[in-house]
Please model this.
Amino acid sequence: MRGLPRRLVTRRRLAAAVVLTAGLLAAGGLPGTPGDEGGTSDRAAPPAPREAALAGSTTVQGERQSAVLAADDRRLLELVGSISAGAGTYVQAVGGVDTQVLTRRERAWTLEDLIALGAAQVQPDDAVLVTRHVLVAPGARLTIEAPGRAVRLRSQPSGFASLVAWKAELTLSGAAGRPLRLSSWDPGRGTADVTPVDGRSYVREVGGAMWLRDVDATHLGFWAGRTSGVAWTGSATAPATGGAVGSSFRSNHYGAFSSEGADLVFTGSVFAGNTVDGLALHRRTVRTTVQDSTARDNGRHGFSADRGSQSVTYRGVTAVRNSGSGVWFSGSPLSTNLSAGGAPLRAYGQLRVAGGRFAENGRAGIRVVDGHQVVISGAEVVGNRDGVVLDGTTSPTRVDDTVVTGQHRFGIAVSGGTATVADNRVTGSTTGIRVQDADVAVTGNAVTEATAHGISVIGRAEGTALADNTVAGRGPSALDAYRLAAGLSVVQSGNDVTGWARDRDNSDYWASFVPNHPMLVLWVVVLGVPLALRLRARRHRGSPGRAPYQDDLLRERSGLLRVDAAR
Model:
């Protein structure tokens, strides 16, 4: 900027500062500054990048998948409605698409039967390619046992093959160390189908029993839950049953999905790299047990349960690096008001998380919304955005013997409702334990290395009590009970805060000031910058009668150079 007037240089620098500050405010605050007052609700949170991609980048892609789904639904309903009792197996065309219908008989249908019927072909590499849709009719059984073998479902732009059991039994099995490799397959490209926009192969049970044992299911499913990969679907009178043992669900739309299932069991299984959730329990799926299983790198939640699903037990599970929460449970009523369909108005619950590890998830390690009879015990929660979050839970709800470590905004947070938070260890969070507008018994917890508040109680928390907690760290307050609603107080007894260093100049505290008070900063910029410009202009303005050479701006200008041509 050499050669420019100093006043102009200063104005340019101030203008650049204004633009930079405005840009940071528009982006939601300065980068890298944790906010203690940030909301904990995911109800209206923007979708994760991979979650946003699940519907396609354009409306046209979504419409294409929806149209394929509608056509497939019509095909299945017409097939099921036309099955004749006592008929042998046959091929039926619906809308120009052939389906192999396996009807009821004494023994189970097998993979060899599908090959003999022309519904499947053996490939040069000994894989088996299923070339047309297969429907296992009510009362029939299909058992595919293929340890170490690849079973591929044709899936290409011209159409795909699906495997559906309708009030029937479907069993897919490999062996330990030699899984059955189940996937979609595009014969033209010689690879799995990685583009679900035009539909993609899937496996589905409707109102019967489906078991997967030592199966590796990959690149399956599109658009809706029932066609999302491997799906257990049922009804109020005929719930889907079964589960998976020692299996993996990778790179599917949903890894595995259930709607109106009952008594499902998933043991020793992996749900990884799926577009939406690893394992999703949806719409009245009840009494599900998931144990010794892992959900990782999924586009939304690792394990999810919602829309009337209840009585869910996660025992010894691992959920890491999912874009949403490791475990997400919603017990919200199916309707908030009386509805024509008579949807229940009650909340759902009976969630138990026993042990397990929940690490590096994009939102919460464990998040529960509107549940009751919730027990989270013995869990290890590490390095998520938030640790354990309860929102609107009712009694009895309890978080105990859980270890929360890493740089969480909130180690354990309870918003609304009631809960007991007892005998947990929270290390390294901005706020160790946070209670907002809730009635919570916070007892016997050890909070260390907190950087803003050890335990914080905010708003209407009439029944909250803090007892026998040990709090250590550095920040504005060990026990923050100064932001309660007017006229309220918190019962405190036996708390040890001797390890807390009170410091209102703590850098983390002030770093959170900008995102917590963005409008104040905006007004400082709007009012302060013009004032600063005016004051600087007045300070450097030459006074009346002052010699021009004493004015810095004028003195910096080069004078006219006189050249005597004669010399």
Summary: The longest helix spans residues 59-81.
